[in-house]
Amino acid sequence: MPLKWTEKQGQYLAFIYNYSKIHGKSPAEAEIQRYFKVTPPTVHQMILKLEENGLISRVPGLARSIKLLVPNDDIPPLK
């Protein structure tokens, strides 16, 4: 089965999954930014792309509202 996302998108999904599992809530964009060492606009554009591709859902303007729409078994390991 071909991947429905790029390798980098898969890593963002893996981070969101692992963070949510450990902390019991989804990560803030600032936490994603710190992990991947990228700029705030880079994280925001990735979140928008993941949402556009149907991989996550979120409520714009509501903090920590990211929800994965990918089955847990399909999420790649976090590198």
How would you describe this protein?
The chain is mostly helical. It has one domain (7-70): Arc Repressor Mutant, subunit A. The protein is built from three helices and two strands, in the order H-H-H-E-E. It has helices at residues 7-23, 29-36, 40-52; strands at residues 56-57, 67-68. It has a two-stranded antiparallel sheet with strand order 1-2. Helix 2 (29-36) packs across helix 3 (40-52). The longest helix has 17 residues, at 7-23. It is globular and about 30 Å long. The model has no long low-confidence stretch (mean pLDDT 94).
From the N-terminal CA to the C-terminal CA, the straight-line distance is 21 Å
Major sheet strand order: 1-2
Global outline = globular
Question: How many domains, in number, for the residues?
Answer: 1
Strand content: 5-15%
Average pLDDT level: 94
Q: Which structural class do you get from the secondary structure elements?
A: mainly alpha
Radius of gyration: 12 Å
CATH H-level superfamily? Winged helix-like DNA-binding domain superfamily/Winged helix DNA-binding domain
Taken in chain order, the helices and strands follow as HHHEE
The low-confidence runs, each spanning 5 or more residues with pLDDT under 50, are: none
Give the helix proportion (percent range). 40-55%
Helix run count: 3
CATH classification, class level: Mainly Alpha
